[in-house]
Design a protein that fits this description.
- By secondary structure, this protein is an alpha+beta fold.
- The chain folds into 3 domains: 117 residues, Quinohemoprotein amine dehydrogenase alpha subunit, domain 2 (Lipocalin); 93 residues, Lipocalin; 168 residues, Glutaredoxin, CATH 3.40.30.10.
- The chain is built from 5 helices and 27 strands.
- A 9-stranded antiparallel β-sheet has the order 4-3-2-1-9-8-7-6-5, covered by helices on one side. The protein has an 8-stranded antiparallel barrel with strand order 10-11-12-14-15-16-17-18. Strands 24-23-22-26-27 form a 5-stranded mixed β-sheet.
Length: 407
């Protein structure tokens, strides 16, 4: 009832007519995460298609295309649910689109204002100055420089004219597909993938320095940053971030599957199998990339004795978490095992992954051989948005699995 009430209130607030025409083609959407226009605006591109009265949206972030097929039209209002995650758009149809973006779904009633402009393909059209710099290449990206919260990451940028694409790599995973531009001496980046809405901007001082940076994913996450160009910039090796504790070599787990049954590592389905254990959650964008990758491996090697188990850290109860995990699994068409194990949190992650120590993150993965021995540990996940980093990881991982299956 509360859900329906919120929907009705939203529709009454933003609808103003009964039968406005929805323009097909390109649109530029803007999520306003702050009440001051322009302060924390997150632009993103999308396409609208109407087929036999059914509306489809396709969101673009650089090379990533996100098809939104759960779109309902009620009068002059569209309700669009992003795939995989719980975010939703509620939009009134006029000459433009306007309404709200709900990052955790309408049920949570936490929202940001949203508007969209039809026919616009530029991601930052209000910045028109020709670029003064080429920032193509690899950079040290330092968040909160000079503070105890300082974090050193690596930005990999590709510039073509004014347009820039790329990502930021950290020890806990990458920022996935980012897109923006250089205008004058300013740099702008953004993304909206349904899990994260991020705006990044900075001032290019010269060919090797970007300063006065801002990065934000919500009004509660607003950080400063600076960047230094360095072709050799790279993150620490995985083995220096997380490792198996002394005295441990195996891993036991237990959880509740999507049907509500208790499942544990001692069950017969896992005996004598090569096993990939993925610790993450349905809310985690890097877990999405990881899940898609291991789904492909599972489909390819399951008949040879390969199993995958996703340990899900979610809401406080299984009842609240189950539909979210189920939505995640359906979205990537994965038939491997998903288990609810604990609420989301660092303490819970450390407790469940008891054989490991170091910089545990969401996701963290383990690969076990047929005897249950831990043969590799990874923290974070660098997905296909990282280019060659993902290509190398994918090749090495598949080679290891093939080797273990033949032992």
């Amino acid at each position: 009832m509360r859900y329906l009430t919120i929907i009705i209130v939203a529709l009454m607030a933003i609808s103003c007519s009964n039968k406005s025409e929805l323009t097909q083609g390109p649109w530029l959407g803007v999520i306003q995460m702050d009440s001051i226009p322009g302060k924390l605006d997150v632009p993103f591109n999308f396409m609208v298609k109407v087929d036999n009265g059914k509306v489809h949206l396709t969101v673009r972030n650089a090379d990533e295309l996100i098809d939104i097929t759960e779109v309902e039209r009620i009068g002059d209002t569209l309700i669009a649910k992003f795939p995989t995650f719980t975010s939703e758009l509620v939009m009134a149809i006029n000459d433009s689109l306007s309404g709200y973006y709900y990052p955790k779904g309408v049920k949570e009633n936490h929202r940001y204002r949203f508007f969209a402009i039809k026919g616009e393909t530029d991601r930052f059209p209000w910045f028109t100055e020709q670029p003064k710099f080429d920032i193509n290449g690899r950079w040290w990206f330092i968040e909160n420089p000079g503070t105890p919260d300082s974090t050193v990451m690596v930005a990999e940028l590709k510039q073509d004219g004014a347009k820039v694409t790329g990502t930021i790599l950290s020890t806990t995973g990458d920022y996935r597909y980012l897109e923006g531009k250089v205008a004058g001496n300013m740099f702008y980046f953004s993304k909206n993938d349904g899990a994260q809405t991020i705006i990044i901007r900075g001032e290019i001082v010269d060919s090797a320095n970007i300063t006065n940076g801002l990065i934000s994913g919500s009004p509660r996450w607003i950080s400063t940053w600076r960047a230094l160009r360095d072709h050799n910039a790279q993150l620490p090796k995985a083995e220096s971030l997380v490792w198996v504790r002394n005295g441990y070599s195996t891993f036991d787990f237990a959880g509740i599957d999507l049907e509500g049954n208790r499942v544990s590592s001692s069950d017969s389905r896992f005996k004598g199998k090569v096993l990939a254990v993925l610790a993450g959650g349905s809310w985690c964008p890097n877990c999405l990339d990881e899940g898609r990758y291991y789904k492909q491996l599972y489909d390819k090697y399951r008949e040879q004795g390969f199993e995958v188990v996703s340990l899900c850290f979610e809401d406080k109860t299984f009842e609240a978490a189950q539909p979210k995990i189920n939505r995640f699994a359906r979205s990537i068409e994965a038939s491997y095992t998903f288990l609810y194990v604990a609420p989301r949190g660092r303490q819970q992650l450390d407790s469940v992954l008891y054989p490991l120590e170091g910089q545990l993150a969401y996701p963290t993965s383990m690969i076990l051989d047929r005897n249950g021995k831990i043969r590799r540990v990874e923290t974070g996940f660098s997905g296909p948005g990282t280019g060659e980093h993902f290509t190398i990881f994918a090749r090495e991982t598949e080679d290891l699995i093939a080797k273990l299956l033949n032992e």
